[in-house]
Amino acid sequence: MANILNIETSTDVCSVALTSEGQVMEHSENYEGQTHATLLSQYVKNCLQYALTREMKLDAVAVSIGPGSYTGLRIGLSEAKGLAFGLNVPLIGVNTLQLLTVSTMFNHFIEEDKVLYVPMIDARRMEVYTAVYNPALQPVLEPQAMILDEHSFEHLLDQGFTLIAMGNGSDKARQVLTHERMRFISGIKPVALEMMALAEKAFREQDFIDVAYSTPLYLKDFQATKPKNPLLGLQAK
């Protein structure tokens, strides 16, 4: 098994974990939000120091590439690229929606027969970043930005599937998705220590992303918001 440094900054959670041989060796995480820029480097340093004192050679860096927060994804990927380049190790990109799905599978036993997993990441108002995966983690619906309404995922529910929704976008989905076969699991957040299975799989398959040119999976273009004080938008003449 590989020694992998995992970085997750796609939502309000900032987390880093060092994993090896199927175990979490060291990890740090913060759930307070807006802390990525101030805490991430220290969390990385903690894990690297742990590896150094135990003479562990790092084999790869894994980073959650989205979808998620534009700022968080940029910070995380930038840190991961710098580490991979400086240490001369490959870079692994982990899809955040798959990460949420795997976390749910590992932590919750689902007894339903025809089950599909629907990870959701908040994208403001009634929009979410989402996808649909079967238990083999194969996409039934590819990752996309979706505006939720009462008809969302209707074609899958009509086929008799039970849909398991999770992630911070699923909270608002409860308001409109009231079908009897919709299930909602609270408290599932993307964190670095849960990246281990996906990162190790990618390492075994040599599924790496480009250290120089890889970009986050945004799913939609960034839209800057207007300043609340109109004077802030004026330039001095």
Strand content: 25-35%
Q: Supply the number of helical segments.
A: 6
Major β-sheet annotation: 5 strands, mixed
- Shape by Cα distribution: globular
The separation of the N and C termini measures: 61 Å
Whole-number mean pLDDT? 92
Structural class: alpha/beta
Uncertain parts:
224-237
| Pattern of helices and strands | EEEHEHEHEEEHEHEH
Gyration radius, to the nearest Å?
19 Å
- For the secondary structure, the number of strands is 10
Q: What level of helicity do the residues show?
A: 25-40%
Order of strands across the widest beta sheet? Answer: 3-2-1-4-5
Summarize the structure.
This protein is of the alpha/beta class and 237 residues long. It contains six helices and ten strands; from the N terminus they run E-E-E-H-E-H-E-H-E-E-E-H-E-H-E-H.
Structure description:
This protein is α/β, with parallel strands linked by helices and 237 residues long. The protein is built from 6 helices and 10 strands. The protein has a 5-stranded mixed β-sheet, with helices on both faces. The chain has a 5-stranded mixed β-sheet with strand order 8-7-6-9-10, covered by helices on one side. A hairpin with a 5-residue loop joins strand 1 and strand 2. The longest helix is centred in the N-terminal third of the chain and has 18 residues, at 36-53. Residues 224-237 have low confidence and may be disordered.
